[in-house]
Amino acid sequence: MAHSYTPGLKVTAFTVVRRERKLPLAGTVTVKVGDEVTAEKIVARTELPGNVQTVNAANLLGILPEDVAECLTVQVGGAVTKGQPFAESKSFFGLFRSRANAPVTGTLESVSAVTGQALLREPPIPVEVDAYVDGSIVDVHPHQGVTVETRGTFIQGIFGIGGETCGELRVAVDTPDATLTEAMITKEDRGRIIVGGAHVTTKTLNHAIAMGVSAVVVGGFDDHDLREFLGYDLGVAITGSEEMGITLVVTEGFGEIPMAGRTFELLRSCAGRKVSVSGATQIRAGVLRPEIICPRLESSIESEKHDGGSGEEGLTIGSQIRIIRQPYFGRLGVVVALPPEPTALESEAKVRVLEVDFGGGDKALLPRANVERIES
Questions:
Q1: Which CB contacts under 8 angstroms, 24+ apart, belong to 92-101?
Q2: Please, is 198 exposed, middle or buried when counting C-beta atoms within 10 Å of its C-beta (0-12, 13-18, 19+)?
Q3: What pLDDT shows up at residue 102?
Q4: Of the four listed, 28, 284, 332, 343, which is most buried by Cβ atoms within 10 Å?
């Protein structure tokens, strides 16, 4: 059978999902292998060193740099309070005093006898890493973090913004080609993940933020709305660190594009369940896709259960695909032929192609680089 590898988009009813949860620097792991955890459970924590503030103590005290150490009222390594003096000098028979006050609360880290400058470090910044998904701990990385495993529905999107969140999923539309509107979102949706259909506007997203919605999942979003929503051009980079007050996952592409029927039905099967969502996206080296994970104790569609393999089976006859370039951008189809030899296109370029059936007798011959496989 003809076979070709192409990057795929996972949309599966039941699979095994593992996520590494690691600290930015060495710290303490708070769980052990075998522990059952919720998405909100803190699995590791550490502290980042606080910011450093520099004070020219010699200048403030009016003394030589080498004399600063003798004027300290707080020992190096000792605690300081904002506005309180940490060094003091006396002059004119002790009648006049000069003081060096701490600009921040923290610790007196060091004093230089060469420059006369004192370094004060602000309190450490606590960093905690949660489990992200309901599941179990299958591996512990000492002083770094853990690996969490869960089983359930796993859906990847095309593009997203915003960080990780979790909440109860609610499908706000009846059909995958509907538009998500402000009227569909109320105060009762606070903390929820809202699923729309083909489109959402910036106005609706801002309303969702006001209502306390955690995330919105839709088929399409206009690029000019994205610019308006963020307030700047995103460019080519990794997303997920935006602090907009909401996470957005786009499953199909830019524009008004109905959500794929299978994706919509899987999301609808998760209605009322707690799901985990991430908008992090990277489209260059090291592809990272936004995702929705709905943990389940067992597969509701037994025939679709699999062990969550590598997902690199490649294109074969019968593979479901999505077109990712014009003129068929966003359309879904099935591979019906994979000619082995390069084929000349209208541009006169010779590339490897495939034949796709869009249904209803509508077929097209496309470059293989113009499609992505929908893994199920």
A1: 98/60, 98/61, 98/62, 99/60, 99/61, 100/55, 100/57, 100/60, 100/61
A2: buried
A3: 95
A4: 332
Please report, as a single letter, which amino acid is at residue 346: E
Enumerate domains of the chain plus CATH numbers.
3-14+152-304 (3.50.30), 53-121 (2.40.50), 315-375 (2.30.30.30)
CB 260 within 8 A of CB 115: no
**Higher per-residue pLDDT: 41 or 241:** 41
Pairing status of strand 165-171 against strand 193-195: parallel
DSSP letters along 81-147, please?
A: -TTSEEEEEEETTTTEEEEEE-SSSEEEEEE-TTT-EEEEEPPPEEEEEE-SSSEEEEEEETTTEEE
What one-character-per-residue DSSP string does 103-116 give?
SSSEEEEEE-TTT-
pLDDT in the model for residue 302: 44
pLDDT tens digits along 116-171:
999 999 999 999 999 999 999 999 999 999 999 999 999 999 889 999 999 999 99
Task: Specify the pTM.
Answer: 0.78
